[in-house]
Each structure stands twice: as C-alpha cells, then as structure tokens.
Amino acid sequence: MSDIASLPTGSRQRQGSNIGQPMTRRDGILKVTGSATYAADNNPEGLMHAVLATATIARGKVTRLDVEAARAHPGVVEVMTPENRPPLATDPDEKTNPFAFRLDALQNDGVRYAGQPIAVVVAKTLEAAVEGAALLRPSYETEAARVDLEGESFVAEIVGPGAPGRAASGDFDAAFASAAKHIEATYDTPPQYHNAMEPHSIVVRWEGDSLSIDMPTQGLAMAVGRTAELFGISPEKIHIRSPFLGGGFGSKGLAAGPQVLGILAAKLVGAPVKLVLTRQQMYGPVGHRGQTRQTVKLGMGEDGRLAAIEHHTLTSTSRFDDFLEPASNVTHSLYAAPAIRTTHAGSRIDIGTPMFMRAPGEAPGSAALESAIDEAAFAAGMDPLDFRLLNYAEVEPISGKPFSSKALRECYERGAARFGWSKRPQAPRSMRDGEGRLLGWGVGTATFPAIMFQAEARAVIRADGSGLMEIGAHDMGQGAWTALHQIAADGLGLSMDEVEFRSGSSDLPNAGIAGGSGHTATAGTALHGAGEDVIARLTELAVNDEASPLYGAGNVGVVARNGRLVRQDDESRGEPYAAILKRAGLAEIEGRGQSAADPAAQERYAMDAHGAVFAEVAVDPNLGQIRVTRLVGAFAAGRVINPRMVESQYYGGMIWGLSFALHEEAVHDKRTGRIMNANLAEYRVPVNADVPSLEAILVHEDDPHVNALGVKGVGEIGITGTVGAIANAIWHATGVRVRRFPIGLADLLGGTPDVSDKGV
Amino acid sequence: MNLFEYVRPASVAEAIAAAGEPNSAYLGAGTNLLDLMKGGALTPARLVDLTHLPDLGSIETLPDGSTRIGALVKNAALAHDTDFAKRFPVVAEALLSGASAQLRNAATVGGNLMQRTRCPYFTDTASACNKRQPGSGCDAIGGENRSHAVLGWSENCIAVHPSDFCVALTALGAIVEIEGTTGRREVPITEFFLLPGDTPEKETVLEAGEMIVAVRLPAEAAKLAANQRYLKVRERTSYAFALASAAAALTIENGAITEARLALGGVAPKPWRASEAEAALVGKAPGKEAFAAAAEAAFAEAKPSGDNAYKIELGKRVVARVLAMAAAGTPERMPALPASAFAPLPEGVVNV
C-alpha cells in the first residue's frame, strides 16, 4: 500500500458521469494553503543538505578543488568529488537504452558544459553547504568552447525521441522548381530553458540497500529503472514518491544527474540527504530546448495552392549525447502539398544535452512554418486564413493516411468568428488603436500528435460498495489528480466521493510517463480498463448467483450505475455492489487494466489534435515596444475530461507561445559559454500585464480510434500556432518581418519612423 | 552565503559607528543586497540593519516648502501618498513603474539609491568586473551588452544604473541628506552618483560609514507638477528594467517652455541629467520640432559601448515622447500601467 495520502475530493460533486464536468482541483486547497508536500518539503530525521558546485567553464577539465577549505568550514560534513564518489554499477555515460541520456555524476574531472556539477558539498545546514561549495574555488584547464550554430554540422538521421530525421513524399525538387511562386526564408529560435517553478530536488534515505526517495518526476517507473541500473539494486528496493510537481515541462521526465548525485551523496555520508537545485543550476544539467535555424521553402501555384514544402532544421546538441529538436516534423501533418521534404542537421556544441521541452519539435517548428505560410499567403495576395483553408490537409500529407478525427475547420471557424477575423485588412500597417499604436492581427495553426504510452491500473470494489483506484500517475500541476479521479469514478460507476484515488508513488501500477500530452489518454485508458475489469468480475458473481436479481442477466448485459449493477434492458432491476460481495463472502474484488496505443489504428490513421490561434498585437510605432493585446485559441483534442483543466492547459500553452514569441532566450557569453541570464529576472517570461486578454474555445470532437476514451491530449498544443500567430500579427502591425525569435523592440526600430519623421 | 555579523543599531549614531568598520554594509529591505550576497557577488563581513531605526520613515513638508522623505520610507508608501504623488507625480510614476508590487512594498527610498547595477558580469562571480573586483577588467566589454550604457561609460565599466526612482529625483533636482561620523552633509543627487572613469567600484560620494538619512525635493520642484511624466521602455510590459527611460518636467507659459527638467535612465552608469537638452528647450514652443531637437541634444555625446547602438535611437525617441507627454499635462489619475508605452496616450504624441 502506498503511503501517499489520498486527497480530499473537491467541493463540486456530481452523481452519474464525472467525465466532462468542470471539477475544481482536488489539490487546490492544499496548494493555496501551502500544505501540499512537494519533494523538498520532506525533512527526515538526521537530514543533511547537499549543494552542487558547478563548472564556470564550458569545456576542459577541473585541475584543482580546494576541498580542504570546504571541509574546514563549520558544519561541512563531506565533499564529494570524482576521487571519493561512491561507485556506480553502470557508467552514467553508457547508453543502455535510447532514453538513458548520459548524466554528469562526477565520473571524471572533465567539463563538457558550463553549469555541469563538479562536486557536491554535504553539510549539516544548507547555509554551510552553500558556503562550502563556494570555498572550493575550482581551477581549470580550459579549452575553447562554442555555443552557437556557426560551426560544423552533421546530417541527423534520428531526431527527438527516436523519430526519423528525414522524410519525403513526392518529388520536392521538381515540384519546387516548376512552382509559379516561391518563398524561402530562414528562422532562428534561441536556446530555451524549462524553468519549472519548482526546482529539481531530491530527498534520499538509504535503508540498507533499499532506497526511499522523494523527488519530482514525470516518470516514476522510468526513474526507478534508471536508479536501479545505476546503483545495481533491484527495482523492488526503490520507492519514489512524487505526489506533486511544481511543473515539469519535460525537464523532469527522466532522472537527472543532480538527482543521482543526491543519492550518491546520501550513500557517501550514510545519512538522509536533501539536494535542491538553485534557479541558476537549472540551466545546464536538467535539459533545455536546443536552438534552431530553420529554412522553409514553399512553392505554390498562381492560385496559392501549395505544390512543394521543404522544412530543414539545423539544431544544437551536446558534445556527448544526442537530442535533436525535431522541428521539421510539424510539416508532415499540417498543410497539403504533393511534394514534402523534411530534413534535420545537428551541431555539437558545449552545452548540456537538450531534452524534451513542452512541444518538442512542434513549438519551434510551428513558429517557422506558420511564419512562412503567412509570408506565402501575402505573396499569393490572399488572406492568411483563406490561404490555410485552401491548403487544408484532408489526409496526413506526408503519409496519405486519413486522420482519426480532425475538427480543424471548426477551430478556424469558431476562432475567427470570436476574434472578428473577417474585418482584417490584408495590407500590413493598416490598423491603429485610438491612440495611434499600430495594431496587427495574425493567425497560426496549432497541432500536436495524440500519443499514448503504456500503463497499468488497479481497481478495487470493497465490501461496503466503495471503490479504490490505484495508478502511479503524475500531476505536474495541470490537474491530473482531478481528471484521472473523474475517469476512475466513472470506471467504477461511483461518485468521486465513493472512490479513493491513489497516485504519485512508484509502488502503484506503472502509469508510463507524463509526457507527450499523453498522460490522460494513457493513464485514463488504464483506469477505464481496470474499472471495466472489476465490474466484469462483479457481474460474473451476480449473474451466476441465483439469489441475485441479476441472475441470468448475462445475455442482456449488465451496467454499473451509482454503486449498483443493473440490467441494461431495465435499470430498475439490479442490486448494490455491497450486496453482491456480501453474498459471495468477499471483502473486496479486484480488477486490472492496461493501456497502450492500438497498433492497428495507428497503422491506419494519423492521430493529431488541432487548433487555430488568433493574435492581436499593439506596437508603439516610435518606440517599438510590443504587447499582445488579445489571444483567441480554438482547439479540438478529442474528448474533454475536465473542461476547467483543459481550458487552463490551453491558457498555459498560449501564454508559453507568447513567451516564445516575445521573451524567452538563454543568452550565452560566446567567449566562455556561460549563460548570462540564468535567473527569472533576466530570462524573461511573461507577467500578467503581458497577457491582457486570453480566450480558449473547446471545439467538440469525437474520435473513435485514438483510445477507448477518445482522449487526445491538451498539454502542449497551445504553444504551437501561438508563436506564429504573434509573429504574423507583428508583421501585420508593422510591415516588418522578423525571422528571429524572440522578437523585440530593437528588431522593429529600424522599420518604424524615427523622431525626426514628420509623418509617414 | 558567507558567515557575517549582524548588527541591529538603536540609533543613527550607533549605525554609523557600526558601519565604519571595514567591509560593512547597510541593510535596508535587502531586496538587492541579499540577492547579491546569496550569489556571492557581495560578501560583507557585517550587516548593519537599519530597518529598526526610528525617525527615518516619514514624509514631511519642511517650513521652506521642500519635501523630506526618510530613507526608510517604502517605495510603495511614497508612491501611494496622495499628497506626495500630487506634488511630484513624475516621482510616483517612476516608482510604480519599477520592480513588482511585492518588491515596492519592501524596498526603501535609501536602498533604491544604493541598489547596484544589474550587469550580469557584476553578478556572475566567474566574470571579470571592475566594480566587484577593482582592476580585474570588464567582461561586459566584448560580451553580452545589449542593455549597457551609451552615455557616461568608460573603458573600465559600461554598466547602467537600474533605478527608475532616481531618474525622476534627478530630473527634479533632489538633495541627498547624508550622515556620517563627521556629521551631516547634503549633496545634490546629480553629484551623489559618480561616473565610472577609472574607479567604477566607487559609485557614490558616500564615505565609509556614511548613510543616507533622507532625500529632499526642493520647493521649486513642486511648481512643475502640472507637466511631468516618466516613460520607461522595456522588453516586458511590467517587471523589467528600462532599456531606456526618461523623466520630464516642464513649465509652459504663454505657449513657450520657460523651464525644462529632463533625466534619462537605463542608458548611463548613473541617472543622467540631460542639461543640454533642457537648455535647448527653454524658450521654445512645445512641439515635435523642439522635442526632436532636445532628443538630439540629450544624446549628442552618446556612443555605443558594444552591441547597443539601437539604444541611442531608442533613447532619442523616448525623450521626444516623454516631452510630448509632459507637455500634454500630468494625467489626473495615475495610469494603470505607469510609465508604460501602453498607458493611455495624450492625443498627438505618436508620430504617424
């Protein structure tokens, strides 16, 4: 039994179907009152504090650490360096599987990016450990580092998590050459960092050769597996608790080097250890979104119909591992063209390995593609929305497969109507607000694949008729505790109050990974299956029991309703769960469920969520300062489990898109490779004043193919489309096409009248 | 964080004595100092906590008509003091355009003057910085310097002063009241801050142990209340330092400018009084031509210190705009987005 406490149910309860209801968060009160226990809130008896010392060079090796000075500092217990670091059973540089990314766990004195851990100081207090780490004053042998895309590149055959780096349909070269009109443009996107509000942390207790761990993770089972492999202990001896995450966005998908170092430090000192990254330390060893330079070529006929699309991405990866942002692949599914070619190239630079970051591939890929499509629409003399509708993909362009469902046309229609798009003048620089600021309107298409992983769930109906559902799922803050509980309750035919829902612990059934926007689909389908299974078992008891009003009802069918099994042909005939179990003399009855993508359906259909985002920006014509004054997004992503949570996910995604378009950029000093804005003051994300008006429209979509629940995913799609919509709106406002993100006022100053202009 | 001694004096005299020791620092709200200490950029051996001192927390009008603001008055309290905001609207607007509500509720007037540059090479202890470690060099030169100075910088330092409040104070000719072991003295704010020259580590005229006890706005500054504005251009609508800002105050009589005050922020190592521009405005009719000429005068000596030539052009446009806004009159109500390009604009200030 997990020791993660069950949560109280929210105040809004409903009998019957819980799916589809806007339940408030079960964890809301805990969070706003500060009583939700995040990993770093755990303080076991005898706890010591571990603090990382990190490299200030980007390439070379550590030649000296003043370990004596650190040790001599009052309160410091131990300094862990490559010299005394306890052994690992598996080399952290060994690729044991494609998801085993190489970690920096003090395996040698090498430095391969700025911010890499080079020692860990353990002390009785956090303050002593911090000062101990500062006292190490490392010396280095420094080699010249490179952190931009200007150097050598290689052809990338594999991108993202194992996707092909190139794909083609039709003959791009011929189709492009013979097209009547051409667009070719290159777009740059910068390195970006996840910046989850909760820093990566770990609290570790070794109990003999067993490990008790509190740490935020988006993948409990994978974290257990990786830890078991690295430490050479069996997975059963590892227990990880992760009830709440303060955001993950992909950076907590896999066990990170610093978390492994926390486990090693606890082993070294023989006491429980807490290790929490500082904000600055999150810029390096826990992943980021690699920078990209994307070239999009579009060939079209005089009528604006696309004949050829090529999308090439040059992106960065580290010197020591491969994760290449699969930005070109968004072009596989969005716009119809007889010839499509997508390619990728990589460049090895002195940075930490890039990693999954919210909408990996689609976010920067859509930024470039949606900008290029807008440029093409203008070249074709068409309204950008009409241009998108003209080139609407009825089937997946790269494969020719039909979509399992696609309500994009409805998204365009409803978003455009709500936004007032029909009033948009085609020419740029033709709208002003009442005070003279330039206004611009832009649109972008949003898309994200419907992904499923594998999961298991356990369902129990107890003697009193109440239920229990268990799954080792993850709530990154997006509301999974609530949405999955809704699915669990429906699976058992009970109200949420009657179902205890347990989650967030590695001793519960494997829920896969909370990533790829696939967690609700994956965990939800397993819960749904577990509910069906336990209800089937209970039905089996009832229909074979002469004392049951359901005796012999097997042929007509039995359904679960409000804690009772009833005949499908006559719901007045049935009996409570408790009565069935009592007669059978059972304390409880258990069922199991599994989920995985259906390979037959996947073979047959392209499965994607879609959306349309409309943006209005205001630009000060003299000062260049930009503000997004309105965002309207309409999205279709299959069945909606909880509209309140889904709306919130769309909001969050769209705000992230705004952030991508106008704000986020990690700025490296090119000479040293160090990131100079590794803090939340200078690595800009939007503040409330940057987001004055935001609307998300949930477009109904039934998908009979994706999974039993018909759920796609909503976590990432909001970013896509939004970036391009904003860039396009800026162009429409100013007539200046900026092809480098983030777009800032300095990009616009040249294109706006200066103070001496007497008017344009 | 290094081990340090914490002293809580009961009087200004005790504070001054305590801070006279080498490597001491005064602690106000600590909104900047503590961050720098946590990052290791500053490592004072002794913190002298001023926040419990009596008598430094009031805003008072003196018999000569000047206004005296105690060093411990909170930024938010000053900006929201109705009487003060009415007499010195540009100061209130500048204050409210800075930081966040939480920071303004904590940060003090004296601390605002004493805050340090946000140059990343100053805060990054692995970088060379002549301010942090005199003689070590300046890694901002040749580095990431988009937001650095275009006026008043030297080859030893190109960092900018981050304050908004001080820009407004500079425009209005504020006086800084200082107390030290040798008694009290007063320094005009234009002389309080020093240019980097060869000694960028020396940012103000304060000697060891000296503390700011108050900031005074002279009586004549209040006469400019009808036409004053602050404008701050930044890369986010709120919670960002200025790329370029300006405070302007005008007296307009019979269709001509009779007095002009102009100070610039975000473009120089100190709040920058643009005296030539002020002189160029006097006697002119308020209008685009005069404002454009003033903008040119304000940046006549400007030169890029790196990848920041755009700030010269931007700075000129900010000056022209803020003068037009000031000429249009102080708004009756503080805009919801103070000093923002997205606050309501008076008619005709946008060049179209």
From TrEMBL, chain A:
GO MF entry, a single one: oxidoreductase activity
Signal sequence segment: none
Transmembrane residue ranges: none
Disordered as annotated region, ranges: 1-27
Domain Aldehyde oxidase/xanthine dehydrogenase a/b hammerhead: 33-144
Pfam families membership: Ald_Xan_dh_C, MoCoBD_1, MoCoBD_2
Coiled-coil regions listed in the entry: none
Amino acid composition bias (Polar residues), ranges on this chain: 8-21
Descriptive protein name: Xanthine dehydrogenase family protein molybdopterin-binding subunit
Organism: Jiella endophytica
Automatic annotation (TrEMBL), chain B:
Protein name per Swiss-Prot or TrEMBL: Xanthine dehydrogenase family protein subunit M
Keywords (A to Z) from UniProt: FAD, Flavoprotein
Residues annotated as domain FAD-binding PCMH-type: 1-222
GO-annotated molecular function: FAD binding; oxidoreductase activity
A Pfam family recorded for this sequence: FAD_binding_5
Matching PROSITE patterns: FAD_PCMH
InterPro entries per the UniProt record, alphabetical: CO_DH_flav_C, CO_DH_flav_C_dom_sf, Diverse_Substr_Oxidored, FAD-bd_PCMH, FAD-bd_PCMH-like_sf, FAD-bd_PCMH_sub1, FAD-bd_PCMH_sub2, Mopterin_DH_FAD-bd
Superkingdom to which the source organism belongs: Bacteria
